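Final report, closing paragraph on structural work. Over the funding period we assembled a curated collection of sequence-structure pairs, and we close with a single example.
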Amino acid sequence: MMVSNNNSENSGKTEPKYDRKNELKAFDDTKTGVKGLIDAGITRVPRIFIHPPENLQNITKTTGTKFSFPVINLDGIDEDPQKRKQVIDKVRDASETWGFFQVVNHGTEITVLDEMVNGVRKFHEQDVEIKKQYYTRDFTKKTIYNSNFDLFSSPAASWRDSFNCIMAPNPPQPEELPSACSEILMKYSNQVMELAISLFKLLSEALGLNPNHLIDIECAQTFALFGHYYPPCPEPELTLGTPRHSDYSFLTVLLQDNLGGLQLISNDKFKSVEHRVLVSHSGPRISIAGFFGRDTSGTSSRVYGPIEELLSEENPPKYRATTVKEYTSYVRARGVHGTSALQNLKL
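Its predicted structure, as stored:
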């Protein structure tokens, strides 16, 4: 689009034509991601990363408000039935009102968490020629590195590089994983999968179902692990690490470093919280997200809809049934737009 100077008596200069498609392709072709831009010494955010004003509301505003987030303590829940009942009640309340909760005493060693964060950092900060070997937009690959899974479909690119590995149902061999972090990827994934099984049982019971209900319908069968890297940004007021969205998985287990950046925005028995990720001058920021329930192979034909045991005349289904493959494909095609992709399934 050509933009003319409004002053007809002026020199008549026009802004250069903005060819977004070609700029996106040029960025993608470098295979070096956002970190490559920082390494090149840029001092301004490229236009493809600038988000519309409605996406950037309140990103620099700080308040003195302190929120008391729900914290679930898993210590002793398998030995003490009364404690388990109390935890189930807390899980139900947190899932209905917040859509997320923090888990403590979950059995994953602190050293493993620290090593995982450092492993993600090591991958993204290693020699660029090694990283390029994994750069792809072929979602069938077991290990994928790129910047923005929805680079060509989202309204604005996010200030984020990521790699993801498919860890279940067919876990990769160690040699198939990035050498910079293969050992810790396997160790962390095994512990997170154990945690997810425990959480799915608690969520099932919180819904009034058999403890194994969500596991039996294969909500925990697939597991994709994402290592996100948010480089320091020269103009953090113009872009986001991730715009407002809700995750398209049955369960997300999130680990983030001490710099944080996750910001909460605020049938539907349990909520999927909307959130976004901010960027900053400092950094980089690191987060690791484990997604359970995405169609990692593209071959699953299982159909999911509202759980029949939860439906009644007073509570009819609010969403149509779909496959995980169809839902995942829809999200990838639309990109992150700030509204839940579930709206597409509303009856």
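Confidence is low (pLDDT under 50) at residues 1-14. The two ends are 39 Å apart (CA to CA). We thank the funder for supporting this effort.
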